Amino acid sequence: MKYISTRGTAPVLNFEEVLLAGLASDGGLYVPETLPSFSKEEIANWANLSYAELAFKVISPFVSDSVAASDLKKMIDETYAGFSHSAVAPLKELGTNEWVQELFHGPTLAFKDFALQLLGRLMDYALAKRGERLVIMGATSGDTGSAAIEGCRHSDHLDIFILHPHNRVSEVQRRQMTTILEDNVFNIALEGNFDDCQQMVKDSFADQSFLNGRKLGAVNSINWARIMSQIVYYFSAALALGGPYREVSFSVPTGNFGDIFAGYLAKQMGLPIKQLVVATNRNDILHRVISGNDMSKGTLEHTLSPSMDIMVSSNFERLLFDVYGRDGAAIADLMDRFKSGPVKLDGARWDSVRELFDSAAVNDEDTCATIASVYEETGYLLDPHTAIGVKAGRECNRDASVPMITLATAHPVKFPDAVLKAGLDAPQLPPHMADLFEREERVSVIDNDIAQVQAFMAGHMHD
Ligand SMILES: Cc1ncc(COP(=O)(O)O)c(C=O)c1O
Ligand SMILES: N[C@@H](CCOP(=O)(O)O)C(=O)O
């Protein structure tokens, strides 16, 4: 499998190179040159596989030039054995043809574990083979950070620096990151917002001179391996509900567009998906693009669903690359213009986006109302991000006979503020996190200034 950049001028790489490269050298994101596709018969044959077996089937074609099949199988088995639910990604029924897929049974209680616990293993495997080290720089609005740290903390080949927006993640999220005290783990609370953190990461890929010859790697969804691993649970959910001989729809709480892009890829790979609903909070650029061709950043606001407080959604570029006929020059030009102001998609391209996705934006009040009403009707407690997905799924549903599956992207215990505002009791931390609030924290608060962040990193990296 070869990987090409969305901006057309970076070198073509194989899987191992893409895994370690993160962002492409031309500023674009890597995507497979061609996607594997599966017939309905092939997909149907996977109906009785365990989650790990299914993951092996879906992931193998993307990595087979770089990872031996037996090694891949071992890494996948170990990854999903670390999840606390035997089904790994179980479905829960909320009502007639209304489901949530629980993606929060990994060690850090959010969907990020699906990819990041595997990514850490894949990186370690590749770096051990090469005898190399990597400096990881990641941006988080709360969930990627802890999952990435968990995936990398035991590695002899990685130093990991995670930037989160100071005072803009929940206390549980912050403590999940800052109480990990291994000497290769560094938490930076940036005096800025998530977009600032993410831009700093991208700018650091563009000029890596501060690393003094070391190499930079990514754990955010700019790294192709993140997206690849997230495709699996779409197959898992559809198979559980009668797919591929029955269509299903997904509503996906969306920020950086990585999770829903994985759903789009599952569809391109042959999974019959009727609707893909982009569910955003008040930071609604994606809803505005899809519904009104308005790709303008606006002001990033702090909401009760902080993990989705994102305006510059990295993976939208991967979609635009397809929609613009894989014309790297056109994407480079579009992204360049977007950097300095609002853009509109060409009419026919926008039509394609609207055909592929439905969308809705949900404010804090409706988020809380959904948490409260779903709890009252079913006894099921949604986290605020999932509540946005459920509300948007209901709003956008075009065919009540098709199951609508909302991806439950985080456990509500991570967001007690929203649960309390919904008038409900905050849930208890699970046993492995019961003493989270007593654990020592280590974090460095740094100005929103790339020179200061890079100087901090240069002063703490290992050789
Ligand atoms: C809990 C939660 N839900 C939804 C999202 C949105 O996912 P994505 O960024 O892949 O669109 C995130 C993070 O981005 C998240 O942490
Ligand atoms: N919501 C994310 C933001 C980063 O997105 P990613 O999927 O690109 O890592 C988070 O929780 O950090």
Structure description:
The protein is α/β, with parallel strands linked by helices and 463 residues long. It has a domain at 84-109 and 226-421: Rossmann fold (3-Layer(aba) Sandwich). The protein contains 19 helices and 13 strands. The strands form 3 sheets. Strands 3-4-12-9-10-11 form a 6-stranded mixed sheet, sandwiched between helices. Strands 8-5-6-7-13 form a 5-stranded parallel sheet, with helices on both faces. Helix 6 (143-152) links the parallel strand 5 and strand 6 (158-165). Helix 5 packs across helix 9 (224-230) and helix 16 packs across helix 17. It is globular and about 60 Å long. The structure holds pyridoxal-5'-phosphate and ligand LJ64HWYM. The site of pyridoxal-5'-phosphate has 15 residues, from helix 11. Pyridoxal-5'-phosphate binds next to helix 11.
Walk me through the topology.
Elements: E1 3-5, H1 15-21, E2 30-32, H2 40-44, H3 51-63, H4 69-81, E3 91-95, E4 98-102, H5 112-130, E5 134-139, H6 143-152, E6 158-165, H7 171-178, E7 185-190, H8 194-206, E8 216-217, H9 224-230, H10 232-240, E9 248-253, H11 258-268, E10 273-280, H12 285-292, H13 316-323, H14 328-340, H15 347-356, E11 358-361, H16 364-378, H17 384-396, E12 404-408, H18 416-421, E13 444-446, H19 450-460
Parallel strand pairs: 4-12, 5-6, 5-8, 6-7, 7-13, 9-10, 9-12, 10-11
Antiparallel strand pairs: 1-2, 3-4
Helix pairs in contact: 3-4, 3-10, 4-5, 5-6, 5-9, 6-7, 9-11, 16-17
The structure holds pyridoxal-5'-phosphate and the ligand N[C@@H](CCOP(=O)(O)O)C(=O)O.
